[in-house]
Design brief:
single chain, Alpha-Beta Plaits, five-stranded antiparallel β-sheet, 4 helices, 5 strands
């Protein structure tokens, strides 16, 4: 074993001396030879140097592995950050699209409120069901854009409230019966001709 270590030491010293001999002075070459002789006489020291060298190589390899691992982790983190940024951009784009749609819907609703309601077709004969005539009650604001809920003022200051709007008398009669079953006992049919309230007998010819 000692002979092997000595041989290794001599080879190492020879290689070192050969690689740097051209750059060493005579004194340095002499010192190198002296060191080689000492190592040859003390193989344990040479063994320690070899083991230390192997240990250093192992440490360097371990450090390189740690560096590679850290680089891999950093690469993964960068990928996660890039993915998070992409998701954030997508969420921002979706939020912007939703905001635009909400603005469009709000503008449409606003425009619809500002538009004049379409005039109802009052031509011909229509039947409505009156549910009462009330004093000191103004429900005209609820008549807007609601053809099935309407009313009119009388000369006495009462407001007549009517529900439904039917071309067919018998449909109006069925609706009247449903209202009476629900407790509106005073419900009755009132006819309109070309938008004007008329007597029931004036429009019932040929209907009943």
């Amino acid at each position: 074993m000692k002979s092997k270590i000595s041989l290794i030491a001599i080879l190492m010293i020879f290689c070192m001396a050969f690689s740097v001999s051209a750059q060493l002075s005579r004194a340095e070459k002499k010192e190198m030879k002296k060191m080689a002789k000492e190592l040859k006489r003390n193989p344990e020291q040479m063994k320690a140097m070899v083991e230390e060298n192997e240990s250093l190589k192992s440490s360097v390899a371990s450090l390189n592995a740690q560096v590679e691992n850290l680089q891999s982790q950093l690469s993964n983190k960068n990928a996660e950050i890039a993915a998070a940024k992409a998701e954030a951009q997508e969420a921002k784009a979706m939020a912007e699209a939703q905001r635009q749609r909400a603005n469009e819907m709000a503008n449409k609703a606003k425009n619809a409120q500002n538009q004049e309601p379409e005039a109802l077709d009052e031509s011909g004969t229509w039947f409505k069901v009156q549910v009462g005539a009330f004093e000191n009650i103004d429900m005209s604001e609820y008549f807007k854009n609601n053809p099935n809920f309407s009313g009119e003022e009388t000369e006495e200051g009462l407001q007549r409230i009517t529900l439904g709007r039917f071309r067919d008398y018998w449909e109006a009669d069925t609706f009247k019966k449903h209202l009476r079953e629900m407790g509106v006992k005073d419900a009755w049919i009132v006819p309109y001709k070309d938008g004007t309230r008329v007597a029931l007998k004036d429009v019932l010819e040929g209907v009943i």
